[in-house]
Write a structure and sequence with these properties.
This protein is of the alpha+beta class. The protein is 60% helix and 14% strand.
């Protein structure tokens, strides 16, 4: 049976997308395509979220009650589900942001300074 630390390591990639979605929704409700576009734009086109990963992640976050969804109309007059951050999702985002910053700092220490 995996330890808690092993479970966290196994969910690292899944958790990456989750925290990016939560962060995106911090700025207001958004439909799936808008979430993917926002992540891509805010990462300066370094991150591309594929629909095959996005929608299962949205379902997972909704199941955990970190986001809520309701039907609405997109800018292109199409029916779409709009997702919003819940209070529980906001708490999770704070926790995960702290964890990711610690992880990024630790990786930075291992990689060392950039060579000029």
């Amino acid at each position: 049976m995996p330890t808690q630390a092993e479970k966290e390591r196994l969910s690292l990639l899944q958790g990456t997308l989750d925290v990016l979605i939560l962060r995106t929704l911090l700025f207001g409700p958004q439909h799936g395509q808008g979430i993917a576009r926002s992540i891509q734009e805010s990462s300066r086109d370094e991150l591309l979220v594929e629909h095959g990963a996005l929608y299962p992640a949205l379902q997972r976050l909704e199941t955990k009650c970190w986001i809520a969804a309701e039907w609405g109309t997109s800018d292109h007059n199409r029916r779409a589900r709009f997702y919003r951050l819940t209070k529980a999702g906001r708490r999770e985002l704070i926790k995960e942001t702290s964890r990711w910053r610690r992880l990024a700092a630790a990786i930075g220490h291992v990689l060392g300074p950039e060579e000029v």
